[in-house]
Amino acid sequence: MTTHREDAQPDEVIRSDADSEQAQCEVHGRVRGMGSTQRTRPNIVYILADDLGYGDVSCLNPEGKIPTPNIDRIAAQGMRFTDAHATSSVCSPSRYSILTGRYNWRSSLQKGIVGVYGDPLIAADRLTVAGLLRQNGYATACIGKWHLGQGWDFDLTEDFLPSNRNGDFLEATPEQKARWREAFSRPTTGGPTTRGFDSYFGVDVPNWPPYCYIENDRTVGIPSEFLPARLLTNNQASIPGPARAAWYFEQLLPEFGRRAENLISEHARTERPFFLYMPLTSPHTPLAVNEEWKGRSGLNLYADFVMETDAIVGRVLKAIEESGVEDNTIVMFASDNGCAHYIGVKDLEAKGHFPSAHYRGYKSDAWDGGHRIPFIVRWPGITEPGSTCDQLVCLSDLLATCADMLETGLPGDAGEDSVSIVPLLRGENHPVRRYVVHHSIEGKFAIRDGGWKLVLCPGSGGWTEPNDRTAAEKGLPPVQLYDMDADPGELNNLQAARPELVAQLVRSLEEQVFAGRSTPGPSRTNDVPVDIWKETVPGFWEADA
Length: 545
Hints:
The protein is α/β, with parallel strands linked by helices. The chain has a single domain, classed as Alkaline Phosphatase, subunit A, CATH 3.40.720. It is built from 13 helices and 22 strands. The strands form six sheets. A ten-stranded mixed β-sheet has the order 11-10-9-6-14-3-15-16-4-17, with helices on both faces. The protein has a four-stranded antiparallel β-sheet with strand order 19-20-21-22, with helices on one face. A hairpin with a 2-residue loop joins strand 20 and strand 21 (452-455). The two termini are 41 Å apart.
């Protein structure tokens, strides 16, 4: 088992006495599995849904109204986690943490998400899950949504975009279209293939330009047409901009499924293990449901999209089975955050389906509905089929988990907030982490310590009412303290009754922030100063809050 030592240097890998045995195992391309058996290094397929709520998966929410038979099959053959969390309640920060094992707020992203044509969020020299696995002989591939910055090689000046008059986007000029053709003829400089992946096929953000596929570091064709606002009707948060001719959103899921099938089939014929990171674009808006799935749920378009997403998961599982690698392939399924309220939540709830189950809030929020997510793992021969784990885990744990699977070490400057869940997957029922730090879209902090949760804002920290401004105007307390075991819906704020616990949790959060890490190891420096007491309105926070 890999350990950290306080005096380790940033680039030093600390190994245990078992390392010599492991080195010999790696020569033969093998690692130790459960007991005394020898297993070939497992393939790893990580499927990430986009904006899928905890309550949208039927095996986690039996009272839900959306059937998810393929996701449920992973659970029936593996382990479902009931207390799993994204590090953030929105997508870019969560994706950063998944791949780096580091909280996003240690980076420059203190709130919000990576913007249109944004700079790469993952530093070029930071170890990612893909980089670690590639170092250990894996073929690494990403298929789907990136949203961590591509490193576009052009200057985003005002004249690059269509003009905007009173909120209405106008047609692009011939000069702008010519500039687009020139800009998108260049390779990207900071996408997946520069961050540990051998290959990449996908889109940066499905509802943002450029509207085209990206393969490795090039756009597939040159997006030189203008996708106007009139073609984006009812596609929430979509932005007009450069597109390939005849671009349409409904093509994305089927194409990603086809690409994944081909990749699995190809790699299964080689002796080299593979890692497939498959961040889907669904059920995030635009709700681009293909005709064969419209109306299938009997609920609304979002529920139809969840069912179509589940079908893509089924295609991936079938490809693994038909390729003959099912017994040596770990399948992980998760979501990047909770369900977005604007997909017709009120309509769903009126029909008896609750995307956040019995948890409070939605995407963007510091409340659990924003970041408690479905997380399911199938590891043949290791995880007990149909098992459930109630221990606290976090999506940042993937890096340390992969290192533990391979019995290799992590350098001191990697995976600062990553904890291995291998013991849980092997059936050990004890906590692997005490804390998880949560982050809302507005950059508001929350911290879990066992069954306790402290929220450092008066409201949701996001979009759900009461948001922080509304809560402040109502005179609600500046912090919230909940007993999650007794009150999972976060309805009974205990901050006034337990001031000593509030102070203790604040200190714990401050220690983890300013140490630059939450795991054992050498102290690290955050990329930018981190303020845990972000003001809701000017002067709202007291000095001793």
